[in-house]
Amino acid sequence: MNEALHQIRKKYIDLITGNISIGGNVVPIYNVVPSTQSTPFIRIYSYIQEEVDVNNTNFNTECITRIEPITSFIGDSGGEYHLNLIIDGILSLIRTRTNIDLSAEGFNVYTTTIDKIRYFEDFKNDETFYRAIIEVSNKVEKI
């Protein structure tokens, strides 16, 4: 198998599931968010896989996964702080110096970095949505 991106996404879903809570309630994690899901929730999805460090002997790729926490509140009653708490929890789990272990899947993750975190504020009807997109880059070697 040459596509590591879905394996990375699964590892992040497994790592974060059940470990982030707001007000004593666990924040659910999804790849595909059900239409009936209320906020807060976290969406994790594959974004880009591209070949890097091209040479004759190794197959190396950069895999970018997006982690998107979303909160919302009626009117202007708050919300961004809860988003910040969720992001802090996510970063505490994924921003370690130990890379994801994909050796059983035939890959070596040799670099993990947070590329960027973008923040958004959206309005719909009388509800304010706060969300962020965390882009996590993993450089992966096929073994």
Q: How are the SSEs placed, and which strands pair?
A:
Elements: H1 5-16, E1 21-22, E2 25-26, E3 29-30, E4 41-52, E5 60-74, H2 80-94, E6 107-124, E7 127-142
Parallel strand pairs: 3-4
Antiparallel strand pairs: 1-2, 4-5, 5-7, 6-7
Write a concise synopsis of the structure shown:
This protein is of the alpha+beta class. It is 19% helix and 47% strand.
Q: Mind telling me which CATH architecture this is?
A: 2-Layer Sandwich
Instruction: Give helix % range.
Output: 10-25%
H/I helix tally: 2
Number of strands: 7
What is the radius of gyration computed over CA atoms, rounded to a whole number of angstroms? 17 Å
The largest sheet is:
5 strands, mixed
Task: Determine and state the CATH class.
Answer: Alpha Beta
Q: Helix-strand pattern, N to C?
A: HEEEEEHEE
Looking across the biggest beta sheet, what order are the strands in?
A: 3-4-5-7-6
Kindly estimate the percentage of residues that lie in beta strands according to DSSP: over 45%
Helix vs. strand class:
alpha+beta
Shape descriptor reads: elongated
Mean pLDDT: 90
Briefly note the CATH topology name. STM4215-like
